[in-house]
Amino acid sequence: MTETILDIDAVSKRFVKELDIAERTARLLGSSVKEQTVHAVDEVSLSVAKGEVLGLVGESGCGKSTLGRMVAGLMRPSDGEIRFRGRNIGTLKGAEARDAALKIQMVFQDPMSSLNPRLRVDEIVGEAPRVHGIVPRREVTAYVDDLLERVGLDPSTRRRYPHQFSGGQRARIGIARALAVKPDFIVCDESVAALDVSIQAQILNLFMRLREQFDLTYLFISHDLGVVEHISDRIAVMYLGRLVELGDAEVVFSRPNHPYTQALVEEIPTFETKKKVYGAIKGEIPSPLDPPPGCHFHPRCPHAFERCRIERPLLKEVAPGRLSACHLNDEASRRGAA
Amino acid sequence: MSLLQVRDLATHFFTRDGVAKAVDGVSFTLDRGEILGLVGESGSGKSVTGFSLIGLVDPPGRVVSGKIVFDGTDLVAAGEPAWRTLRGKRIAMIFQDPMMTLNPVLRIDTQMVETVLAHADVSRAEALERARQALVRVGISAPDDRLKSYPHQFSGGMRQRVAIAIALLHEPDLIIADEPTTALDVTIQAQILSEVQRLCAETGMALIWITHDLAVVSGLADRLAVMYAGRIIEEGETARVIERPLHPYTKGLIESVPHGKKHREMLAQIKGMTPSLLNLPQGCKFRPRCPRADDACLEEPALAELAPGRRARCVHPHVEALQETLVS
């Protein structure tokens, strides 16, 4: 568990909305319209050990999916680099770039929009391994059958189209397609979010079983903390593009350090049958176009003080293997020292 | 007398491929001020039940039989005119996607005033004042500015609050909420849940909360009704259903929720998938997926009262749970 397979090093992703012609003209005439920039991901650093399941949680707009897409090579970081087995995947060329791309696969949220509706299942699953020469052409059929069986689909359904399957079965097809190129690393972006509870449990079990069988590493992205807690070894919490807390799954849940994580853990609906009084943290998630200064969470934080409004808290180690970005930790340690 | 009595409600959809019995024989009652959680997976008929109660089932669907007795009047027999006078006034609905209730090209004040004037004989100024108060009640700050905004200027959570405010305008006796927090983030969901809890306590309105998420209603509802393939398969007081489920499906559902389970352990899973409504299995609809099924299940069981206030539709219910309750 000590070997690092993926290194995300100070990665940022900015999306800039360019001015249209009317706005450019307006600017020439002295108006103060500016290009709008969204810091979707803001200097995030993470490393993932081989064989680990790293859960990435956060609410909508926190940049978790953007980070996942950069890891899977679907987007380029604006700054920073992502190293897979020590090599920057952004600068690899030719065959090496292709190999790195094959080793990191992605399973998407909505299987219907990520599966080509006009291809049969065996084409969806078998195309990539055939094209990349992963299995000899003659053996593709047997290879696909084996994969379908491993993800819990009947190989006799190989000639069907995606619309002939239920949601849970489509999720299985998406997983089989990702596994077909023998990846080492899988990015699961809300892969169980669209499924019913009973089907979700089946797919989560499948993920856990495949991880053992194929020796996989997962980056498991979800807004559902219950799911993430169950499947992950470590958990990273993001808020408005920044990493706010990182640590062992059980510790993050039992003793969350950052006030945002505390609020998130508090709000998970549980089977507490006595009438739960939902406390609710105040306010809305601010727009990423115009994030608050200092700590992004300060307008909603019950413990915010002067420093939080001005200075961005850095991610610091608060316990071995445990990082948190909150000024309160400094206060606590100062008080401890005094 | 109960506020709402539903007896053997059946809503079928007459499609080209056959008759889909989305709701088939649903019965329950609801008292004033009570919160009922209607739980089920996709295709279980929970939303169609909600739509049937407020008379919003579109063709090819139709309420084919049964009674919906609201405050003494059978709405199925009374038909559309009765619904028109009640809908929005005494029964209101909150939908999953607030963009479905809000008109994107009208300002919030226009939409809210329109709703007030539809059922109340008041001046425009008074209607506007009521709209303002409704926004305050759901926790929207700066209501005067908000009234002049368009729906797209609100965030998702804010829109859902506006939808709830509109539902509350006439202080209805019954609100039907169809997965209103499913599309929202956890922290926003908690805010909405706490508002709804407070409003129910304050106004004494009855609420039917339709959801696929057992965990959400377990902290909110007084009673739960679990649906499967168009039928209620278990009903009872929330705490007892969650702690001691009688039906194998309810038990399976609770066990497949990952939260609070042992880390990394395989989850208990219900095998198979929900059957197509066009091709339901013979007998108990859960039979092909049920670990307890045998030949006796080939005949469909009725929703039977197994203990006071505990009903389940099962040939082999987990009665041992019941006995534990009785002993303890």
UniProtKB/TrEMBL annotation, chain A:
Its main location: membrane. It is a peripheral membrane protein. Belongs to the ABC transporter superfamily. GO terms for biological process: peptide transport; transmembrane transport. One of its GO terms (molecular function) is ATP binding. Residues 16-265 form the ABC transporter domain. Keywords: ATP-binding, Nucleotide-binding, Transport. It comes from the Bacteria. GO terms for cellular component: plasma membrane. InterPro entries: AAA+_ATPase, ABC_transp_ATP-bind, ABC_transporter-like_ATP-bd, ABC_transporter-like_CS, Oligopep_ABC_C, P-loop_NTPase. NCBIfam families: oligo_HPY. It is found in: Cell inner membrane. This is Oligopeptide transport ATP-binding protein OppF.
UniProtKB/TrEMBL annotation, chain B:
GO terms for molecular function: ATP binding; ATP hydrolysis activity. Keywords: ATP-binding, Cell membrane, Membrane, Nucleotide-binding, Transport. Pfam families: ABC_tran (PF00005), oligo_HPY (PF08352). It is found in: Cell inner membrane. Residues 4-254 form the ABC transporter domain. Transmembrane segments: none annotated. GO terms for cellular component: plasma membrane. One of its GO terms (biological process) is transmembrane transport. It is a peripheral membrane protein. Belongs to the ABC transporter superfamily. PANTHER family: DIPEPTIDE TRANSPORT ATP-BINDING PROTEIN DPPD, OLIGOPEPTIDE TRANSPORT ATP-BINDING PROTEIN APPD. NCBIfam families: oligo_HPY. This is Oligopeptide transport ATP-binding protein OppD. It comes from Lutibaculum baratangense AMV1.
